[in-house]
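Thread title: Can someone regenerate the structure for this chain?

I was given the following input by a collaborator and told the matching structure tokens would be attached. They weren't. Posting the sequence so someone can regenerate them.
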Amino acid sequence: MLSGWRGMRMGQRALAEALVLLALLCWWWSSLELPAAVLPSPPAVGQRLIAILTTPELNWHVAVTTLRVLLSVATALLMGLLLALVAQAVPWLSGIIMDHLSFSRLHKCA
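Best answer:
Regenerated them for you:
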């Protein structure tokens, strides 16, 4: 049973790889007929991607954006924790807080 599963999985992987290669081939063939401004060739896109990824300015912007996202997630988690603690500590605020949280509305519908 396991060997049949592996064989099926290998077949699916081979099909997926073949489809990727077919897409790249179609892209390359189409880029021969169209101007580079409309559809650049795969090698041209690869060279530009390497140039972009090795630019120090881009690396700085990616780092700053990643930090902003992580800080936003941490802030949201902290706010959620504080709301949960307040709802547990002050019973009369629990109803107010729980009524304004979106998951409590979904819970009532389900």
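The first helix runs from residue 2 to 33.
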